[in-house]
Structures are given as C-alpha cells and as structure tokens.
Amino acid sequence: MTYLKNIIVYSLALVLLLSCSFNEGNFTVINKSDFKIDSLSIQPDSKHQMFSLDKNESITVNTNMNSVDIDGSYIISFKRDNKTMTEKQFGYYTNGYQIEDIINITVLNDTILINSKFDKTY
C-alpha cells in the first residue's frame, strides 16, 4: 500500500511540476547607431523591464512570458536622443513559448535588424 501511495504522490508532483510555465524570451540588443537608446522594452514581458543603451553597447534581455497563453509577435520600442519613439513588431511566439533559442536585435541609425537563431534540434 505504501508503494501505491508513493506512486500517486510522485505522479502528482510530476504533473504539478510540468504544468508550471517557465516561459522566457531571450534577446540580445546591440546599439550600432549614433544615438543613445532610452526606455528600451521588449514585449510581452510581465516584468515590464526598461533599459538604456549607449552607442556601441549591447545587452542581454530575458523577458518573462509566463502570463502569455496566446500566439503573437514581439514589439521592441525605445526613445532616441531627440525623444522620438521608435517601435517595431517582429518575430512570433506560440502560447508564450519562444520558438527561437535567441533573437539578436541590432539597432542602426535608420533601421532595426532582427536575426533569429535556432541552435537546438527538436
């Protein structure tokens, strides 16, 4: 009887553990522009993080997507030196899971380059 109880307890613990979401978006942002970036954010992110980047600076951003349960695309937004807001929609996630292993974002003077990287074979 104890053996059966252990199986039930371990099975329940496994189900609970697997039902928890550890959804995270992984991004690298590089500022190769002639201006400082302020109030940079990548959505969706339940942590609502904002960053600043000087010229030629890079940063790794990990967004929390645990509360996302739909499909959608990312949005990067930031302010330039002259306080104009720039926003770009890109990529795709499904049910809060990032498909790529990492997304590399390069900000240039007149454009934003997006490079998705797939390292794992599934």
From TrEMBL:
Origin superkingdom: Bacteria
Species of the source: Winogradskyella endarachnes
Entry protein name: Uncharacterized protein
Listed PROSITE patterns: PROKAR_LIPOPROTEIN (PS51257)
